[in-house]
Amino acid sequence: MPQKTMTHARLDPRRPLVLDARELGRRPGSMRAVRRTVPAPADLALELARVPEGEPVELDLRMESAVEGVLVSGTVSAPVAGECGRCLEPFGDDVTVDVLELFAYPGSTTDGSADDGEVSRMSGDLLDLEPVVRDAVVLALPLAPVCDEDCRGLCATCGARLDELPADHSHETLDPRWAALTERFGTQPDSSDSQES
C-alpha cells in the first residue's frame, strides 16, 4: 500500500493568528495561556452581518500539549456590524464563540490517518488559528439579524420604517375597476355602495 505524503504550507509566524507551540515541548499535559487582541481577517461575513476587517478580535485561549498534537480551547470575541433583515438599518453587536480544536503533530497517528481537511495540522511548531476562528465566528453570525426584536420592518408601499410612522399609517389603495370613474369624477365610490347593488 503506498504511503500517504502530506505537504504542509509554511506558516509565517508574524501573522496574528499563527501561534507558536514550541514552549509546550511536545510534553503531554504542558499548557500555555494565550490572551491577545488581533485584527479581524477579511471575509468574516454573511450577507447581512459581518466582523469588519481590521476590527479587534479578542482571543482568550489555552494551548495544551497532547500525545497526538496541541489542543487549543477557549473563546474568541469580536464586534459585529450589519444591516437589519427587516428594516435595513445598520446595527452593531458583539459575538463570543467557544473554540476547541486539536492540531495534529506532523507524523502522528492522527496526521497520518486523517484526510486533508478532516483535521487541523501543525506546521513544525506553528499552528494557524485563522480557519478555526473563521469557522466558529461565521457560524455564530445571525442569518437574519434584526436591529430590535420588535422591529416591524418597512412599509410595503412607501418603504418607510414602520417603527417611525404613526400607528394609523396606511395608503389608500384604488380598486382598478373604479379607476376610470375616479379619473372622470374625481372620487372613488364607497365599496359598501357597490355591495348593495
Q: What is the element string, with H for helices and E for strands?
A: EEEEEEEHEEHHH
Question: What structural category do the secondary elements indicate?
Answer: alpha+beta
Average pLDDT score: 83
The quaternary organization reads as: single chain
Total DSSP E strands: 9
Distance between the termini: 90 Å
Main pleated-sheet profile:
7 strands, mixed
| Percentage beta strand | 25-35%
- In one word, what is the shape? elongated
Q: What Rg, in angstroms, do the CA atoms define?
A: 28 Å
Helix content: 10-25%
Contiguous low-pLDDT stretches (5 residues minimum) are: 1-7, 191-197
Count of helical segments? Answer: 4
Summarize the structure.
15% of the residues lie in helices and 31% in strands. By secondary structure, the chain is an alpha+beta fold. The strands form 2 sheets. Strands 2, 3, 4, 5, 6, 7 and 8 form a 7-stranded mixed β-sheet that branches. Strands 1-9 form a two-stranded antiparallel sheet.
Structure explained in plain terms:
This protein starts with 17 loop residues before the first strand and ends with a helix. The chain is built from 4 helices and 9 strands; from the N terminus they run βββββββαββααα. The strands form 2 sheets. Strands 2, 3, 4, 5, 6, 7 and 8 form a 7-stranded mixed β-sheet that branches. It is α+β, with helices and mostly antiparallel strands.
What keywords describe this structure?
single chain; 197 residues; two-stranded antiparallel sheet; 9 strands; 31% strand; disordered N terminus
Topology:
Elements: E1 18-20, E2 31-39, E3 44-45, E4 49-51, E5 56-65, E6 69-83, E7 90-104, H1 109-113, E8 120-121, E9 126-128, H2 130-140, H3 179-185, H4 191-196
Parallel strand pairs: 7-8
Antiparallel strand pairs: 1-9, 2-5, 3-4, 4-6, 5-6, 6-7
